[in-house]
C-alpha cells in the first residue's frame, strides 16, 4: 500500500511504474491533473483513490489496470469518459461524484463486473441503452443530475437494490422498472413526477421503500 494523500504534489514520477506489486494507491487531495504513462505497469493494483485532485480528463492509463476493482475519482473536473473500457473487466466500484460529466459512453456496458456506481452531482441528461446491460449492478446513485427520462429497458438491471434518482427532471418512469424485484430503496424526490404511478405502486408491493 502507498498512501500519498493530502500533500501538495502536482505530478507523479515515472518511477511509480516500478512498484509492480502495489495493490492499494491513495493519491487524494493533491494537485494532480494527469498521471504518468508508467502507471500502466501497475498490473496488481486493486484500489486507486484520486479524489479531490485536478483531473479534467479520465486518464487513459487507467484502462490498462486490468486488476483494478475500485476506482474513486470524485471531486475532480472530469467532463467525459473515454470509450475504451473493455480492459477494466474486474472493476466493481466506480465513484465519480461531483465531476462535470454530461454523458456516458455506450461502452460502459463492457465494465460487466460493476456493482456500485456513484454519479451524483454531475450534469448527465441521459443514459445510453447499453447501461441496462450491467447485470451485476446493486447500487446506483444518480442524484442531482439532469435526467429527464430513463432507458425503456432500465428494468433489466435486475440485481439493483438501491437506486437514488433524487433531484433530477424525471416526468415518467419506464414500465420495465416494475419488474425490479430486488430493489429495496428508491429515492425519487425533487423530480417532476405528477403522481404515484403504477410502477411505483408495483415496487411498493414488492417490498421497496420509495421516497417521492
From TrEMBL:
Q: Which UniProt keywords apply?
A: Leucine-rich repeat, Repeat
Q: Which residues cross the membrane?
A: none
Give all residue intervals belonging to the Disease resistance R13L4/SHOC-2-like LRR domain.
Answer: 5-76, 86-201
- InterPro entries xrefs: Leu-rich_rpt, Leu-rich_rpt_typical-subtyp, LRR_dom_sf, LRR_domain-containing, LRR_R13L4/SHOC2-like
Coiled-coil regions, chain positions:
none
Q: Which Gene3D superfamilies match?
A: Ribonuclease Inhibitor
Looking up PROSITE patterns in the UniProt record yields: LRR
Q: Any keyword Nucleotide-binding?
A: no
Q: Pfam families, from UniProt?
A: LRR_14
Taxonomically, which superkingdom? Bacteria
Q: Which protein is depicted?
A: Leucine-rich repeat domain-containing protein
Q: Which organism is it from?
A: Serratia aquatilis
User: Source taxonomy lineage?
Assistant: Bacteria, Pseudomonadati, Pseudomonadota, Gammaproteobacteria, Enterobacterales
Amino acid at each position: 500500500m502507498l498512501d500519498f494523500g493530502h500533500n501538495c504534489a502536482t505530478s507523479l514520477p515515472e518511477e511509480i511504474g516500478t512498484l509492480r506489486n502495489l495493490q492499494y494507491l491513495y493519491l487524494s487531495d493533491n494537485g494532480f491533473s494527469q498521471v504518468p504513462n508508467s502507471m500502466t505497469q501497475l498490473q496488481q493494483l486493486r484500489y486507486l483513490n484520486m479524489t479531490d485532485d485536478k483531473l479534467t480528463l479520465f486518464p487513459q492509463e487507467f484502462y490498462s489496470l486490468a486488476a483494478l476493482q475500485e476506482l474513486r475519482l470524485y471531486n475532480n473536473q472530469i467532463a467525459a469518459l473515454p470509450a475504451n473500457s473493455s480492459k477494466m473487466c474486474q472493476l466493481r466500484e466506480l465513484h465519480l461524484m461531483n465531476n462535470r460529466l454530461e454523458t456516458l459512453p455506450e461502452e460502459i456496458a463492457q465494465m460487466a463486473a460493476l456493482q456500485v456506481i456513484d454519479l451524483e452531482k454531475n450534469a448527465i441528461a441521459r443514459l445510453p441503452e447499453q447501461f441496462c446491460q450491467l447485470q451485476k449492478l446493486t447500487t446506483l446513485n444518480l442524484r442531482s443530475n439532469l435526467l429527464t427520462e430513463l432507458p425503456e429497458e432500465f428494468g433489466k438491471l435486475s440485481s439493483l437494490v438501491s437506486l437514488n434518482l433524487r433531484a433530477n427532471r424525471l416526468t415518467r418512469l419506464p414500465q420495465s422498472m416494475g419488474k425490479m424485484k430486488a430493489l429495496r430503496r428508491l429515492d425519487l424526490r425533487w423530480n417532476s413526477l405528477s403522481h404515484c404511478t403504477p410502477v411505483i405502486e408495483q415496487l411498493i408491493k414488492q417490498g421497496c421503500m420509495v421516497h417521492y
